[in-house]
Specification:
Length: 634
């Protein structure tokens, strides 16, 4: 807690000083930056050759180990020109301390070497990992296959300075002729947030970009139920599904079981026939678990923007227990009781979870604050079973601040604490953009959303509340996001591993490596914009509530002189790269696209208020440049 308070003070000071965005995180991260590891005596690459072989775990149904091996060989080859030999674990020579192997995942060599006696694999989590030197070998070992993949990227980072800044910007040493094996000193990385999801369009649509930054996809751990990962009440219990009756007749589910559906038909009813409906749902859940055997969590969650059932019986439950979420909890407990034995029998080595939403109608926990300052469930039966998680989605929270900031404290922090008395397993769904603009599809919301501060505090908050996963709702409909979205994606990937990651360092690295010749100018623009926006949030009381873009649509907020200064910097960035236009036209094109993408926010504001700053960068108008990335600014 002290650390958080000191950070908040640092942030306030930085507002006052009008200095750059990222306030002091005085703890430098141990888990991500080059860690000052020393080299061993073993030659990994000598005179452009290597005696090392890759030995890998077989039989991984997720395909992630194959990907890990492929990434390892591809990038070692890119750095050194050496194609390492690849051998399946079962046909590799018996491991000895003289073996020169890079072991990927759960190999026989890992067993023979005694690695398992030195590390608690379960403690690593599915996405965490350890890297160990044993004898001359290096073992890349995840708590699960995703952890092993993350170990490969870390190995490449330490050996060859591998770093992914954007899908088309991967930095790695080249022409390496000689390189020793690094002594990883029993490195262990357990991410602060185990499952990290983003709805940013570019991450959703570009699997390799996601993987290289350690993001997960929903399919990595969530069962598709009713064809969906969430909002699936009526796809899993489809009212139009045809069921054969005992007399051989085909009837619709809604005709056979009207009690299973809410009065308005927009959701299920979880009270009128709890036994019948839960039998049906559990039988469907079993099919889904079998169909997606590697996933660990299955959501049964309400349809979006629809009320939970308001029938007489449901209203009665609401009165009895105090919230609409209560009948939902009791229903999920019923499902858990009916499926848990079967899950243990069919998946003895993996804990499988069900989860529900704390969202919209079910947002409020049925729990009460006691005189001792602690929440407890309104009735003992409302405590969720051990294998049920709750995904909390505070859609109306002030997203520029953490949930325990005074703007959110009363409603959200209190409610999250209340949920913690109901469930031991919390997942978060956060919101990182102004989502209810004139285009509700989310594809063309032009407004900047500056939650760089908020997100660091938010991640720290979620980690301190034992979040199993964080899903950042973001602009998803476009393949590319502007408003520094790639920087956001990069920084969040670091924060999910270590909520105290040194954002200032990573921001510097990003600007140097991503904007290159224009790096200093674009960093100057970002720093000025960050200070300006941060001050605006503090002084004008902006909230960052997603449905409240109007709070920044105000010409009094946007100083015309400052806009002119920013657009001047964009023009200067174009001058910075002009020198390579003829010498390196491919790089020029890449950098031009990156600068132009970030110019959109500033030019949009400039035009919105009919300011007179002139963007002369590439001679295009805003509509033309917006269209290059799929945005409609007309
Ligand atoms: Zn009902």
């Amino acid at each position: 807690m002290t650390k958080r308070i000191s950070r908040i003070i640092a942030i306030v000071l930085s507002f006052l000083a009008m200095i750059s965005l990222f306030a002091c995180n005085d703890k430098t991260t141990e888990s991500e930056k080059n860690s000052g590891f020393v080299e061993t005596e073993s030659d990994f690459i000598k005179d452009g050759k290597s005696e090392y072989k890759i030995v890998y775990q077989e039989g991984d149904s997720t395909g992630i180990i194959d990907l890990a091996v492929n990434e390892l060989t591809t990038f070692v080859s890119q750095a050194t020109g050496v194609d390492l030999q690849i051998i399946k674990s079962t046909v590799a020579d018996k491991w000895t301390t003289d073996s020169k192997i890079i072991s990927v995942g759960d190999t026989d060599a890992a067993l023979t070497s005694g690695l398992y006696g030195t590390v608690d694999i379960g403690e690593l989590s599915e996405t965490g990992f350890t890297i160990k030197n044993i004898g001359e070998s290096v073992f890349l070992m995840g708590g699960g296959t995703y952890g092993t993949l993350n170990a490969v990227y870390r190995f490449l980072h330490e050996e060859f300075n591998f770093e992914c800044y954007a899908t088309d910007e991967i930095v790695i040493d080249t022409s390496v002729r000689n390189k020793k094996i690094i002594d990883f000193n029993d490195l262990k990385v357990i991410p602060d947030i185990v499952w990290k999801l983003s709805a940013a369009g570019e991450i959703r649509n570009d699997v390799m970009y996601a993987r290289r930054l350690g993001y997960n996809l929903e399919s990595d751990f969530i069962v598709s139920f009713g064809g969906r990962y969430c909002h699936n009440f009526l796809t899993a219990v489809n009212p139009n599904a045809e069921i054969e009756t005992e007399s051989g007749e085909q009837r619709k589910l809604s005709e056979l079981h009207p009690d299973w559906f809410s009065v308005d038909g927009a959701n299920v009813c979880m009270t009128r026939d709890i036994e019948g409906l839960s039998d049906y749902v559990v039988s469907e859940m079993k099919k889904a678990f079998l169909e997606y055997p590697d996933a660990i969590a299955l959501s049964f969650t309400q349809m979006d923007n629809s009320q939970l059932c308001n029938c007489e019986e449901c209203v009665k439950y609401g009165h009895k227990y105090g919230t609409k979420s209560a009948s939902y909890i009791l229903f999920m407990n019923k499902c858990s009781d009916k499926i848990s034995g079967w899950l243990k029998e069919n998946f003895p080595n993996k804990t499988k979870y069900l989860y529900l939403f704390a969202y919209q109608d079910s947002e409020t926990a049925p729990a009460t604050l006691g005189a001792d300052g602690k929440y407890s469930p309104n009735a003992p039966e409302l405590k969720l079973r051990e294998n049920i998680m709750v995904q909390i989605a505070p859609i109306y929270a002030s997203g520029y601040y953490s949930y325990d900031h005074k703007l959110n404290q009363e409603v959200y922090d209190a409610n999250i604490q209340a949920w913690q008395s109901i469930s031991d397993n919390i997942m978060f769904w956060t919101y990182s953009y102004y989502y209810m603009d004139n285009d509700t599809s989310g594809s063309n919301v032009p407004w900047p959303y500056f939650d760089f501060y908020g997100v660091a505090d938010m991640y720290a908050y979620t980690a301190s509340h034992s979040a199993i996963s964080v899903f950042d709702e973001d602009l998803s409909a476009n393949n590319i996001g502007f408003d520094w979205q790639r920087l956001k994606i990069y920084l969040r990937s670091k924060l999910s591993v270590d909520v105290n990651a040194d954002l200032r360092y990573y921001t510097d690295m990003f600007f140097q490596n991503y904007f290159k010749q224009a790096g200093n100018t674009m960093k100057e623009l970002f720093d000025s914009y960050s200070s300006y926006y941060s001050k605006m949030i503090a002084e004008k009381g902006l909230t960052g509530r997603g449905n409240n873009h109007k709070e920044i649509d105000n010409d009094e907020l946007w100083d015309e002189g400052t806009l002119a200064y920013w657009i001047g910097l964009l023009n200067k960035a174009y001058e910075d790269i002009a020198v390579i236009k003829s010498t390196d036209p491919a790089l020029y094109k890449t950098l031009e696209e990156r600068i132009c993408l970030e110019s959109l926010t500033f030019r949009f504001i400039n035009e919105r208020y009919q300011y007179t700053a002139k963007f002369i960068g590439n001679g295009n108008d805003l509509a033309t440049d917006g269209a290059r990335y799929g945005f409609n600014f007309v």
